[in-house]
Amino acid sequence: MKVLATILFLLLIFMQIGLWFGSHGVFQLWSLDANIDQERENNRKLMQRNEQLHAEVQELKGGSEALEERARSQLGFIKEGEKFIRVVPKRESAESGNR
């Protein structure tokens, strides 16, 4: 009877090792759950960014004001008849070298 109990106990230990530390064990499950949560957060951020870009595209397609504003700010376009004045700040190194 002791031999049978020992064999059953060793079998139980072997099965527990597989359950906890095996390739489909509990620790692997916890790791995968953490990865899933991280990927869901990444997906949420990307979906939010996509929505912003989609809204921006719709705004650019629909209105000339948004297109004009983007051309002015990013490309430096000016309207006909406007005057463009560029202010260049003095450089610190040139100012300190002349004194």
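(the above was protein one; protein two follows)
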Amino acid sequence: MEQAWLPAAQPIADTPGLRWKIWLKNEAERAAGGIYLFDDEAAVQGFLTGPIVTAMGADPTVHDVNVRMFDVMEAHTAITRGPVLEGAPV
């Protein structure tokens, strides 16, 4: 699974407004996912309507895609050392 998705890493990294992505996998369940941090909602919407997500939707091996958006609780995240840049807009 890791090797199959490796070519997607750089195009995702090049997404405007993306600060970072943490890649997740559960090989036993043949599941994968990620946690993304974007600069703002406009960047999220650009990603969701862009070519990467469109290609994922056309891939027959990708199914049960679930997208949920959250705001960052900055004070809590700072205490638990979350990888959010201090002073940057979220």
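Reviewer note on protein two: Strands lie at 18-26, 31-38.
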